[in-house]
């Protein structure tokens, strides 16, 4: 019985080792050898999972997407404005743990420019995010919350741009762009899209 | 007479060599040795300008800021909405040459996470950009174009976020986010800020 390999448990164990190496030492040090040292596995058996460093980094990109997906799926079905706010909260680097994810993401983005596999993974992740945002914004149109003069798909692109841009600002201009400023900009954006909410409790 | 070193000409010559190496081979290959080979200088005399690779990359970041500044300064004094549109055009990767600048910028951003000097340079560049944008938006408030209910400084932060986020989208999701889509999102944003412009010629 213990001989049957639990692939899911192994994957999780590897994921944690990869993540520890990246968040402590940086993406540029995330070699198969470093992950082997961190996980206690032999380099040889690790090569079975990651024949190259590129495959290791592709796995790190998958982990990032998994983490984002888990946070997005935890968003309860509430009104459309709240869902849009929660999506921004799930993506912006508002906590230390999430700040590390953003640092990894930026490092992977730089790599993606010379790695077609990473570039494809990044594009797929963006596509998934955009389709979630578009879905919420089309629903808002159907409910009369978003003006019919607006194109929900274009608004999805613009809203994701605000989130991505605020993410960069939070990382590189933290003295001026605190979590409060980032969320104030998001709220202002949602006011423009959906109108200023009533100040009365719902 | 020829003994007097023309530092500005040397700097320009070096800048071109650094830029050719980075845009052809990528930031990760921009070593002092590679720039020496490209420029025809000896590694020794190049070390006088760039004692370390970090100083070389800091110089690349300066070049990026110079290029952006030159494009921004070329914007004629026109109405505030046009100035804001032109700033976006100057920053978004709408041409091949500018796309290369964005690729270099992303690579330097990833480096900046582990290089305090680069991080400071990036922050200074953002600060300069934000103060240009704030200036235009305060002027728009004074002219009654921007509603007094809006905070021009927060709007500057949000507008820069849209530009940065659209920049990432143009690079990593080019099939969906063309130059036209990026500019349509910018125009929609300016409509929200300043009102839909009259369709009559000014």
Largest sheet of chain A: none
Overall, the morphology of chain A is: elongated
What integer is the average pLDDT of chain A?
88
Q: Total domains of chain A, how many? A: 2
How many angstroms does the end-to-end distance of chain A come to? 55 Å
Helix and strand succession of chain A?
A: HHHHHHHHH
Proportion of helical residues of chain A: over 70%
Estimated share of beta-strand residues of chain A: under 5%
Q: Which CATH class of the largest domain in chain A?
A: Mainly Alpha
Counting DSSP H or I runs of 4 or more residues, the number of helices of chain A is: 9
CATH architectural designation of the largest domain in chain A: Orthogonal Bundle
Brief characterization of the structure:
The structure is a homodimer of 202-residue chains. Chain A is mainly alpha-helical.
Give a description of the structure:
The first copy, chain A, is mostly helical and 202 residues long. Chain A has two domains: 1-51, Arc Repressor Mutant, subunit A (Orthogonal Bundle); 64-194, Orthogonal Bundle (Tetracycline Repressor, domain 2), CATH 1.10.357. Chain A is 73% helix and 0% strand. The first copy, chain A, is built from nine helices and no strands. Chain A has helices at 7-25, 32-39, 43-49, 53-73, 80-91, 96-112, 116-142, 152-172, 179-194. The N and C termini of chain A lie far apart (55 Å). The mean pLDDT of chain A is 88. Chain A binds chain B through residues 26-28, 103, 106-107, 109-114, 119, 122-123, 126-127, 130, 150, 154-155, 157-158, 160-166, 168-169, 171-173, 175-177, 181, 184-185, 188-189, 192, and chain B through 26-28, 103, 106-107, 109-114, 119, 122-123, 126-127, 130, 150, 154-155, 157-158, 160-166, 168-169, 171-173, 175-177, 181, 184-185, 188-189, 192.
